[in-house]
Write a sequence for this structure.
């Protein structure tokens, strides 16, 4: 059998907008308080895009940092995938808008929709392209501007979300390194639990959809919470099994940053000490597709990941979907 290529992360970059919205700010907007938000979610503040920033602008900032860290130029890129649920426009894709901004003339470009699992889905997709030899490298970005689809009069959801972008460059790496396994999944039957209904072909934008709040995120928090705790456990076990690794071999655990209680329950199920788990939900809140790359890139920049470390990523989100990966750094 032909030996397949080893594919891994060869560059990283991240970006969050400057403006910070604190829990104290939200107390002035809806009937909530810092104590409730921190105890139920672990969130203290989140970054919010300025009115002239769209998702491609956040993605661009993360992308140029990732290119620099990989030692590549935009002209070297062969593929761009942006995982997002808040594209600049319905079409063209945000990846095409970014391709032009970067001047990545050689790159194929498309968006991928798997909500908060989108970044792991995107890396799995790019990994496949590079493994087959179709492309030598890929820029994979998780970027979302959730503030644009958040109803800031709804206390159930407006405290939970923030904006940001995280980017990686994938390429061939030495044998034994890079991605060991992926586990992707979907439970479309739960799609109603977390959705944005308006503006698609089922319910095109109209005065009624605007008045009915159909262009905002709808979420059944309790049911999504149960789903999250369940699949974080099962996806983690499955991706470790596929990688031939045990939970004792995990050096760093990078879970989707939606809620500290979901993160702690997943960490405890793996019997991991706190220092092996990346948490930044306090600073950025849930940034959807950007959440896992923001946590991963921040951990790498902070020197928390050494060469040869085994890193486990796992996330869940709208769809419903989940995605996990084991990487040797
Ligand atoms: C949303 C979430 C934080 C709510 O926490 P919870 O402990 O389940 O809270 P409950 O749903 O039991 O609500 C408790 C009460 O707090 C109230 N509440 C909700 N948001 C509030 C807020 N921001 N401030 C104060 N009170 C709030 C509710 O109205 C409810 O009041 P009631 O009992 O009088 O109706 C939690 O369900 C969650 O994190 N779910 C998963 C969400 C998620 O991960 N989404 C992203 C998927 S990618």
């Amino acid at each position: 059998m032909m030996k397949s290529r080893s594919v891994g992360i060869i560059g990283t970059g991240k970006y969050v907008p400057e403006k910070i919205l604190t829990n104290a700010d939200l107390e002035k907007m809806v009937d909530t308080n810092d104590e409730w938000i921190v105890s139920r979610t672990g969130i203290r503040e989140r970054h919010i895009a300025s009115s002239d920033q769209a998702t491609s602008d956040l993605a661009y900032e993360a992308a140029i940092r990732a290119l620099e860290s990989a030692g590549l130029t935009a002209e070297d890129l062969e593929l761009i995938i942006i995982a997002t649920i808040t594209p600049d426009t319905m079409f063209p894709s945000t990846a095409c808008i970014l391709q032009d901004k970067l001047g990545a003339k050689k790159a194929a470009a498309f968006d991928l929709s798997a909500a908060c699992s989108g970044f792991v889905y995107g890396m799995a997709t790019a990994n496949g392209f590079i493994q087959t030899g179709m492309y030598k490298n890929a820029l994979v970005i998780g970027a979302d501007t959730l503030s644009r689809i958040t109803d800031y009069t709804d206390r159930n959801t407006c405290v939970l979300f923030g904006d940001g972008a995280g980017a990686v460059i994938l390429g061939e790496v030495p044998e034994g390194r890079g991605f060991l396994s992926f586990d992707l999944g979907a439970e479309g039957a739960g799609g109603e639990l977390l959705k944005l209904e308006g503006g698609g072909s089922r319910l095109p934008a109209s005065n009624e959809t605007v008045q009915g709040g159909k262009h905002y995120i709808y979420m059944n928090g309790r049911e999504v919470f149960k789903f999250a705790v369940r699949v974080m456990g099962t996806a983690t076990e499955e991706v470790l099994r596929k990688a031939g690794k045990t939970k004792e071999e995990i050096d760093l655990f990078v879970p989707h940053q939606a809620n500290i209680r979901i993160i702690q329950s997943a960490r405890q199920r793996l019997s991991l000490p706190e220092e092996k788990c990346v948490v930044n939900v306090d600073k950025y809140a849930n940034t959807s597709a950007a959440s896992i790359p923001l946590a991963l890139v921040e951990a790498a920049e902070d020197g928390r990941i050494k060469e040869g470390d085994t890193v486990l990523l796992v996330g869940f989100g709208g769809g419903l979907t989940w995605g996990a990966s084991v990487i040797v750094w």
Summary: The radius of gyration is 19 Å. The pocket of coenzyme A is lined by residues 32, 36-37, 40-41, 116, 155-156, 159, 194, 219, 221-222, 224-225, 228, 258-259, 286, 317 (CB under 6 Å). Residues 221-243 form the longest helix (23 residues). The mean pLDDT is 97.
